[in-house]
Write a structure and sequence with these properties.
By secondary structure, the protein is of the alpha+beta class. Helices cover 50% and strands 13% of the residues.
Length: 475
């Protein structure tokens, strides 16, 4: 039994050391250059709010699908705790915290993500040209749009349709965007086919698109074939060899462009074209001063709880406080490692989980005192205390986990990511609470129980304990 306690103690020390190394990682980079910097949500950090509108009449179910695609794209941008929710029947509100390039993010969100290869009959088209294809004869880029700069102003005019582009030729599509194999779309890598530092996004088509692409490229060596993304010409490379199996890669000169293409392709095509109706920057509703005040309040609260536990439960309270500090370190390390973006609701969930962690220790120590009053030895009282308190701890934890799951599903269904953040931090805190209360605190009590000073009833807020008196007399 003693050796098992030592093994658990070593495990707890190692786990705490790993957690601290994540929290205090230099520059927010951990092992293998993993980004473990703390992420703040829109209410603490600010960001961009975009209102997207369907370019054509659609049903609400179609907009729900579009909202799901947009949320996956936002996550693909490396942004967590975003807010994506429907507004009315044809609009989607997107809030993105702390992005470095709002303009690029907006273009990534509104693009339909449709990749086509077109036959231009040997004609080279300039990159950026808006074209009509047999797969998309009415591109959203040719429709009236209403956009506002990132200043919070409302749009006042619409962009007119280009008569030339709207009545231009319709080019034959070699591929169908629906046949794009999403599993074959790979993150940007430095292209091995170029001596310059170009970045390539690998892709593959399936079905008839793969066959047509292979046959066309085999029959048109040394002729141009234009790559079109969302009806905009990306490039018109000269075919050097047949694309066997419909596989190839799109190369760009910058990683930023490559990442935008990858995100649009990888996370699905929108079922309906979307226009940017308005966009604005959102300043942090709390700001750094409020964040600092929240940290101070958290420290004060944690200190108050620790003093209460120590004064009321004495030695077990000291051990519980130490376990609570370990719980806090592991929690923050997981927030940075997963990662979980911290917002006010998320912080509230974490603070609530601390209270529940203290509640578990209170149940255990109350039972421990009762068992000592019955005359049991300290070791036996510890075991009985945990065994008797466990059903209450288990049932309350399961009830809270069920509540957290319901809240998470509610937030996920209705696009309220703030509720999801609260539910996630609360649920994770409950699981960690079970670990620290049952494993960490129990291990600490087992390790100190054989020590002579631990046989003093005063350390457990008792005037006398028959089992401890017998242990001292027979020692």
């Amino acid at each position: 039994m003693r050796s098992r306690d030592i093994y658990f103690f070593v495990f707890v020390v190692l786990l705490t050391g790993i957690a601290l190394s994540i929290i205090f990682a230099p520059g927010g980079r951990w092992l293998f250059d993993r980004d473990v910097a703390i992420r703040l949500g829109l209410d603490l950090r600010g960001g961009t709010q975009v209102l997207l509108r369907a370019a054509e009449p659609v049903e609400r179910s179609v907009m729900q699908t579009a909202a799901g695609v947009i949320e996956r794209r936002v996550n693909g941008l490396g942004v967590a705790e975003s807010v994506v929710q429907l507004s009315g029947t044809d609009r989607v509100i997107v809030e993105i915290p702390g992005i470095a390039n709002p303009e690029q993010a907006i273009e990534t969100l509104r693009g339909t993500g449709k990749l086509e290869f077109i036959d231009t009959n040997g004609e080279f088209l300039t990159a950026g040209t808006i074209v009509r294809t047999t797969g998309s004869p009415n591109p959203v880029a040719l429709l009236p749009t209403a956009t506002a700069p990132l200043t919070g102003t409302e749009p006042t005019a619409t962009q007119p349709i280009s008569p030339t582009a709207a009545t231009g030729p319709i080019y034959q599509s070699i591929t169908d965007g629906k046949d794009l194999d999403l599993n074959a779309v790979q993150p940007p890598q430095i292209s091995g086919q170029s001596i310059s530092n170009q970045f390539a996004v690998s892709f593959a088509f399936t079905g008839e698109s793969a066959s047509r692409l292979e046959q066309f490229t085999a029959a048109n060596i040394q002729r141009p074939m234009c790559i079109v993304l969302d009806n905009q010409v990306f490039s018109c490379p000269v075919i050097q060899a047949a694309l066997i199996g419909g596989r190839g890669e799109i190369t760009t000169s910058t990683r930023q462009d490559a990442e935008q293409i990858y995100t649009q392709l990888k996370y699905g095509a929108l079922p309906v074209p979307l226009q940017v109706e308005s966009s604005r920057t959102v300043s942090a509703s709390l700001g750094q001063n409020s964040v600092d005040a929240s940290i101070v309040a958290g420290i004060v609260g944690l200190t108050t709880v620790a003093l209460f536990m120590i004064l009321f439960y004495r030695l077990p309270g000291v051990l519980a406080t130490l376990a609570l500090l370990i719980y806090t370190a592991i929690s923050f390390a997981l927030y940075q490692l997963i990662p979980i973006t911290l917002t006010l609701p998320g912080i509230a969930g974490f603070i609530l989980s601390i209270g529940l962690a203290v509640d578990a220790n209170v149940l255990i120590f109350a039972r421990l005192k009762e068992e000592l009053r019955k005359g049991k030895s300290l070791r036996a009282a510890i075991e009985s205390g945990f065994d008797e308190a466990w059903p209450a701890i288990r049932d309350s934890s399961v009830a809270t986990l069920i509540t957290s799951t319901i809240l998470f599903m509610f937030g996920n269904t209705f696009g309220v990511s703030l509720i999801k953040g609260f539910a996630l931090t609360l649920g994770l805190g409950i699981l960690l609470n079970l670990f620290t209360a049952v494993v960490v605190t129990r291990t600490f009590l087992h390790l100190v129980s054989p020590l002579p000073f631990a046989q003093n009833p005063w350390l457990y807020e008792l005037k006398d304990a028959p089992g401890m008196r017998y242990a001292r007399e027979t020692a």
